[in-house]
Amino acid sequence: FGGTERVLEVHLLSGSGDWYGQAVNAELVAFLRPDQRFASETELVAAIERDVKTAQQRLGLTPLPPDSLVG
User: Fold this and answer.
1) In the chain, % of residues over pLDDT 70
2) Which of 24, 28, 2, 6 is CA-nearest to residue 15?
3) Quick one: how many helices (H) and strands (E) in the chain?
4) Three-state SS for 44?
5) Quick check: helix, strand or coil at residue 20?
6) pLDDT class for 47, splitting at 50, 70, 90?
7) Which one, of 43, 40, 49, 44, lies nearest residue 69 by Cα?
8) pTM over 0.90
9) Could you give the CA distance from residue 47 to residue 33 in angstroms, rounded to a whole number?
10) How many other C-beta atoms can be found within 10 angstroms of the C-beta atom of residue 52?
11) 14 Cβ partners below 8 Å, 6+ apart?
């Protein structure tokens, strides 16, 4: 947050398990949106849900059930 280091945030659209700290390969397919600050957790969750829907559309994936998007 607020640093100068470039980072990439990856959101897994399916699967399960604890991936924190694990090495993964990711392919950048499309840029969804620039960094932004949110006034509340609710706004952040809504933005993530929109990002997931956008990614699913761009990748031609079947949308996930709403209760699996955040959790």
Assistant:
1) 83
2) 24
3) 1, 0
4) helix
5) coil
6) very high
7) 49
8) no
9) 10
10) 20
11) 64
Token readout for 33 is 């949106």
CA distances to 27, 43, 61, 67 from 19, in Å:
17, 25, 22, 20
DSSP 35: -
Q: How far apart are CA 44 and CA 49, in angstroms?
A: 9
Q: 26: Cβ–Cβ under 8 A, 6 or more apart, which residues?
A: 8, 10
Q: pLDDT class for 71, splitting at 50, 70, 90?
A: very low
Eight-state DSSP code of residue 33:
-
Separation between Cα atoms, residue 53 and residue 25, nearest integer Å: 22
User: Tell me, what's the pLDDT at 66?
Assistant: 61
